[in-house]
Amino acid sequence: MGKPAGKKNKEVVSKPNNVNAKQSKGSDRTSKAFDEDTAVFINMSQELKEEGNKLFQKRDHEGAMLKYEKALKLLPRSHIDVAYLRSNMAACYMQMGLGEYPRAINECNLALEVAPKYSKALLKRARCYEALNRLDLAMRDVNHVLSIEPNNLTALEIADSVKKGL
């Protein structure tokens, strides 16, 4: 039993390049399989997002939220669709009424962790802050959007509205 193990050790020591080549091919296969699996999950997530969007259009905000939550679970944490889904969830909370605005703000915060310059999330959060009479925070978000997109009409509208409240 000891001799075959010894022979293998000699082969490995005498041909380190072959071993490394085999390892890199193996890791390529692993990463390729990982990429394929990830792509499948991303596609499934996009289908769930579309289903959620249809439910949102039908004003089934709770149903839409469930689809968005399922879609989120299929994505890598830093995937850009995480920001879009979180923003959609914020929109659902906003449609549910003023009492849900703090949850909408939280969803916008989570979206902005993934995409800090995502103007839709910034503007939704600004609208929530404005409705909750946190005009300073609303103005901060609007100014952030205007620094990125100076001609953003929604940002300009919110800015006018907030200035009237100040």
From TrEMBL:
PROSITE patterns: TPR
UniProt key word Thylakoid: no
Region (Disordered), start-end ranges: 1-32
Pfam families: TPR_8
InterPro entries noted in UniProt: PHOX1-4 (IPR044517), TPR-like_helical_dom_sf (IPR011990), TPR_rpt (IPR019734)
Protein name stated in the entry: HSP-interacting protein
Organism of provenance: Actinidia chinensis var. chinensis
TPR repeats (start-end): 45-78, 119-152
Superkingdom assignment: Eukaryota
Keyword Flavoprotein among record annotations: no
Keywords: TPR repeat
Biased composition (Polar residues): 15-24
